[in-house]
Predict the 3D structure of the following.
Amino acid sequence: MVYFTEAQREFCSWVREFVVRELTSGAKERAKLEYVSPEAIKKLADARLLELTPSARFSSKPKDFVTIGILVEEICKVDFSLMIVLLSQVLVYLMMEWISDELREELLRALPLGERFICFANTEPDCGSDATAIRTRAERNGDFYTLHGEKTSISGGMQADILILTAKTDPELGARGVSLFYVPMDSLGISRSRFKDMGSIPAGRASISLNGVRVPVRFRIGEEGEGFSKVMRTFDFSRVLVGLSAIGLAEASLAEAVEYVKQRDAFGVSLSKFEGVSFKLAEDATYLEASRLLCYEALKLRDEGLPHSKEAAMAKWFAPKCAVQTIHDILLLFGHRGYSEAYPIERRWRDAFSTQIGDGTAEIMKLIIARDILGGKFGPTM
Amino acid sequence: MEFKFSKQEELWQWAIREFAEGELSKQEFMTLDHMPADILKKMGELGFFSVKVPKEYGGNPGTWVMVAMLAEEIAKMNTSLAYRTLVSYEINLLLAEHGTDEAKEEWLRSLVNGSKQGCLSVSEPDFGVDVSANKTEAIREEDSYFIRGEKSPVSFGMQAEVALLFARTNSEKRTAGLTAFLVPLGLSGITRSSIKNMGLFPVAPSSLTMDQVCIPAKYRIGDEGEGFHLHTHMGFSSDFHRIMSGLISLGAAQAAMRLAIAYSKQRVAFGRPIAKFEAISEKIAEGATLIEAGRWLCYRALWLRDQGQPNAKEAAMCGWWCPKVAFQVIEHALLIHGHTGYSDDLPLQQMLRDIVAFEMIAGTEGILKQTIAQKVIGNIAVPDVMTDSIKD
């Protein structure tokens, strides 16, 4: 990519080589597991790919946001199941400065080794992207908070040993009543159940109910009432990564399709000779390129400390849409092979579909964009 | 112009709905690896596989519109079963029109009453859309044919008792070398192995390997060399198949739409039902428009067929467009449900997985558009690479 720095380009070719060497074998089997393979996580840890943050204060190997994006894109070309791990590591590091000293020290030791599986819980049965409508309650009694409520659609929820969740510390207030908590999953009063999803199976999406879960005050992340704004700030980043993960899936599919249409004959000539085929691929390649650039644009803005909520929202709806469309076209191009479990296309199709939903639907993204370009007064009112 | 079903057709639709809403809502079998035999039996008893089959084999008179209504109504409950209905009609009617009396006597009645199931076997591992390149061969020796080759994938191949199969009786000719046969799948020399797909699980496709399978000459359907004609007349590349695939897709889309409408009224976001948001209501409006347009496209194509008029162009339109828009409607219905649509708590993700198959079942979008292009532009529109191979 033309505006990658020399270092980013080097990282890109290194990670490509790493992925092929370490992750290609067994990726198909890992995609069927109901959890993320600990061996694969270990490989990321050994390659020191689990301390993903630009801050030299928290990482011995700091990486800018663009570089983290490159990592996600390249890994998802081969093993989408690792996306949930990369995403949660990234988010924890973004919150590191607000985490209490004692917890932070332990996390900074354990996270790079892949010894903690963390997940984020914001969505509830009656509220998705509207975080102000959160019902989970955190009541303070002395040095403890007691948590009650139900979180749902938690990616990684079945495997996680730590939950970072939003809860209302002041139900009277809207967004300002939301605080953020660090909750060990072995705490008393937690139970979880699995969703049986159409794809992204290893992410083990879960519903988690909290029934009088007690956590010490030092497990609160940031001050009371700061939860919502902190979550929103991390969303800008995670949304772009979701976009890039979808693009990784689509790029891998496109590369296979290019080989397939050259080899496969219909009516005595290569499939590639039909414009219905070659132009479709040309169109998909264009959409992928455009949405990929949009993702990196958002990350670059973030690296430069510039506002990028609008670009992140654009990347979040557009990249998954382009990726799903591309994979869909390619699935149809492969015909009954594409439909069969013997080939990776249908799995990528099912996996990629999740990226259209997770971290906010296209409608929510368009809401953010519309507010940004129209301004508060003329934008959509909620 | 008259946009309505006849009295007979309306009664028929009522009977199907009665069955579908009664029987099919009782059993959940979207994810089974076979079709429940009791349901097929019941459908047979109700005469659901009998339209246009001669009376002596348990058949009843009726219109093409009636056959299609059946597929559409069943598809609202279960796409795989609707596809079963379509394939059953193809086999039953090919056998009824072109089979020998002995073959009909032995098989047709039980196919029509739902006690036995057939599969239609065209595709081969290396040739998808291009049937003229099929390699499976049938060699005649006195009163028998010996069949050898591999067919894959074969929808319903794991469960069916008999296959209506296309094989080559002449290796010199391409399309004119193909012949149709009835092949009982219990014969020695046949191996089936299961193919796992991303959807339409009860269709349970298989590959069929045939090693010198001997069948009596009376099981030949039509004349030698007539296979390609039968395939385009009533098989997978027929106008009938294209229209039916379209309507099945739209049936599923209607079911998804119902769920989306109900959910939009009940789900609250930002303090109001999401139906209040234009981003949601307009998607539903768009879906309703697509379904309405698609249904009439299909029913008009069928009406043309009932009038004995050509409908190849219209059928090809149904074949590519209806599954495509049906997919879009179901996808939007799923996305309206957000993350709940992604899990198997709701049937939407399975419907979406099922419907992808219909974007291929009636031929690729490219092939179907070629048919339309040749009708509306003329033969000049045939790409050079295709004219060369179509010549025999």
User: Anything to note?
Assistant: Residues 343 and 349 of chain B are 7 Å apart (CA to CA). The mean pLDDT of chain B is 93. The interface with chain A takes residues 123, 128-130, 153, 195-199, 268-271, 277, 279-280, 335, 338-345, 349-350, 352-353, 356-357, 359-360, 364-366, 369, 383, 385-386, 388-390 of chain B (CB under 8 Å). The longest strand of chain B covers residues 144-154.
